[in-house]
Amino acid sequence: MESVLTPMRKRLIETSAGNLLIEAQITQPSVPVGTLLEHFAAIHSYNCEGGTGFCCCAPKEYLVFINANRTVENETYFLACALAHYRLEHFEIPQPRSAEQEKKVTAEAEYFADCLLMPEKWLRWACDDRTVTQPEARELARRFDVPLEALYRRLCYLGIPFIPT
Contact 52/67 with Cβ under 8 angstroms? Predict the structure, then answer.
């Protein structure tokens, strides 16, 4: 995922996520992403057999459509990715996007979600300079309200040792 992101773009995303936490005065997990998203977007639901949802930008507002029939492992992470598209101005990229552009937009949204939901400072403090065991990882994922896969990805990126499942 992250290999398509330059170090400069990663830093910009980290700063954007950190600034949002500061603006919202959020100082500990779990981040109330749904509440944050409501400040920036009009959220609607729809019914469909496939897909989780989508985002789009109308002339004067940002719209998030959530499939009421979706099967998302983690609602918070899904909403954090939707918020990322808004904060990172992905709607400025002309449509249709190439496969490479789509891969980059997805990687940026996931990286933003990782940084927003699991800021480095919070995660390092929670891990307390020790190797994270499987039971501890499950507890951290619960505390930060993220999928276990996202937690492992973030631990790896930050160089925090862990015992994978």
Answer: yes
Considering 40-44, 67-71, 80-84, the range whose residues carry the highest mean pLDDT is 80-84
Q: Which pLDDT belongs to residue 150?
A: 94
Among 162, 88, 89, 91, smallest CA distance to 123 is for 162
**Residue 62 CB coordination number (10 Å):** 19
Question: Using the 8-state DSSP alphabet, how is residue 88 labeled?
Answer: T
The reply to whether the predicted model has a pTM over 0.70 is: yes
d(CA 72, CA 28): 24
User: Residue 24 — pLDDT band, cuts 50, 70, 90?
Assistant: very high
Q: Are strands 41-46 and 53-57 parallel, antiparallel or unpaired?
A: unpaired
Angstrom distance (rounded) from CA 25 to CA 62: 23
H helices of the chain, where? 7-23, 33-40, 75-87, 99-117, 120-127, 134-144, 148-158
Query: Quick one: tokens of 129?
Result: 């300079």
Do 53 and 65 touch, CB atoms closer than 8 A? Answer: yes
